[in-house]
Write a structure and sequence with these properties.
The complex is a heterodimer of chains A (155) and B (125).
Chain A (H helix, E strand, L loop, with lengths): L1 H48 L10 H15 L4 H5 L3 H11 L5 E7 L5 E6 L8 E3 L3 E6 L2 E12 L1
Antiparallel strand pairs in A: 1-2, 1-5, 3-5, 4-5
Chain B lengths: L2 H44 L3 H6 L17 E11 L2 E9 L9 E8 L5 E8 L1
Antiparallel strand pairs in B: 1-2, 1-4, 3-4
Classes of the chains: A alpha+beta (155), B alpha+beta (125).
C-alpha cells in the first residue's frame, strides 16, 4: 500500500514537471514571436518616419532649357510664338526639341514680372522641374515690346 | 509551420525589402552621375563642331567612358536645324540596344557652329 502511494506520488510529480516544462517552452515561443513582432514594428516605424527624398530634376535640365531658348531665338522661331501667343505652334516645336518624355511649361512675363500668359504640356510635373535662366525678348517685327520668357522642364 | 517560423519569415523578408529599397535609393544618384559623365565626355569630344558630330558614332562600350564593365549605356542623338521657320531633323543616331528599368539619365542640348543643334540623351544602368 505504501509502495503504491509512493509510485503515485512520483507519477504526479513527473506529470507536474512535464506540464511546467511544456508551459515554459510555449512561453518561450510566445516571447520569441512577440520579440519578432516588436522588431518588425520598429523597423516599419523607422522606415515610415524617414522622410522620402524630395524629387529633384536632372541637373542638366536647367542648362538644357536655357540653351534651347537661346537657340530658338537665334533661329527666329521663339519670338513669333511668344508675341502671337501661338501655344499650339510653340508646343509642336517643344515636343520635338525637349528631352524625350520630358514635360515643359513656358511662362511669359512683362518686364515688371507680371505673368502675361503660360502654356503647360500635359506631362509637366511642377514638383520635379528645372527652370531656364530668364530669357529677355526685346520686341517683334520692329515694335519694341520687352518680355521675359522662362522655360521649365520636368524630367 | 510554427508561429515562430512565420514571425521570423515576416521579419526576415520585411527587413530584406527595407534594405533593398534603401540601397536602390542610394544607387539612383550614382546612375545619374554616370549618365552625366557619358554625356559630358561625348560633348567634350565633339565640341560644337558640326563636322565632328557628323562623323561621330555613338558607342555603348562602358570602357570608352571610364565606367565599369557590365554597365548598360543607351545613347540617342538627334541633330535639328530650322528651315523656313520649321524644325527639321538633319540626322539621328542611337546605340542599338535600349536600357530598360530604372536608369540614370542625362540630357544635353548643344548648339553647333553651323547653326544646327544636337539633342543628346544618355541612359545608364
Amino acid at each position: 500500500m505504501r509502495c503504491v502511494r509512493t509510485a503515485t506520488t512520483i507519477a504526479i510529480a513527473r506529470d507536474g514537471d512535464r506540464r511546467r516544462r511544456g508551459k515554459a517552452g510555449i512561453s518561450m515561443v510566445y516571447d520569441a514571436v512577440f520579440a519578432c513582432i516588436i522588431l518588425f514594428v520598429g523597423m516599419a516605424y523607422a522606415a515610415s518616419s524617414v522622410p522620402p527624398a524630395p524629387p529633384k530634376p536632372t541637373p542638366d535640365l536647367q542648362s538644357y532649357a536655357t540653351s534651347l531658348l537661346v537657340w530658338m531665338d537665334s533661329k527666329g522661331i521663339l519670338a513669333p510664338y511668344i508675341y502671337t501667343q501661338d501655344s499650339a505652334g510653340l508646343a509642336s516645336v517643344l515636343d520635338r526639341l525637349a528631352p524625350t518624355g520630358a514635360g515643359y511649361c513656358v511662362k511669359v512675363y512683362s518686364p515688371n514680372w507680371d505673368l502675361l500668359w503660360t502654356y503647360t504640356s500635359p506631362s509637366f510635373d511642377a514638383g520635379n522641374a528645372a527652370a531656364s535662366q530668364p530669357y529677355p525678348l526685346s520686341g517683334y517685327q520692329g515694335v519694341p515690346d520687352p518680355k521675359i520668357v522662362v522655360l521649365l522642364l520636368s524630367g | 509551420m510554427s508561429a515562430f517560423t512565420i514571425a521570423l519569415s515576416i521579419v526576415y523578408f520585411g527587413g530584406a525589402a527595407i534594405y533593398a529599397s534603401s540601397i536602390n535609393a542610394q544607387l539612383a544618384p550614382a546612375s545619374d552621375s554616370a549618365a552625366s559623365i557619358v554625356a559630358s565626355t561625348i560633348v567634350i569630344q565633339n565640341g560644337n563642331s558640326s563636322q565632328a558630330w557628323s562623323a561621330w558614332t555613338p558607342s555603348s562600350d562602358p570602357s570608352a567612358y571610364g565606367l565599369l564593365q557590365g554597365t548598360a549605356i543607351y545613347i540617342n542623338a538627334t541633330c535639328f536645324t530650322v528651315s523656313d521657320k520649321q524644325v527639321t531633323v538633319m540626322w539621328s543616331r542611337a546605340t542599338p540596344t535600349s536600357v530598360t528599368g530604372s536608369a540614370g539619365r542625362a540630357d544635353r542640348f548643344v548648339v553647333l557652329d553651323d547653326g544646327s543643334a544636337v539633342r543628346l540623351e544618355v541612359l545608364v544602368r
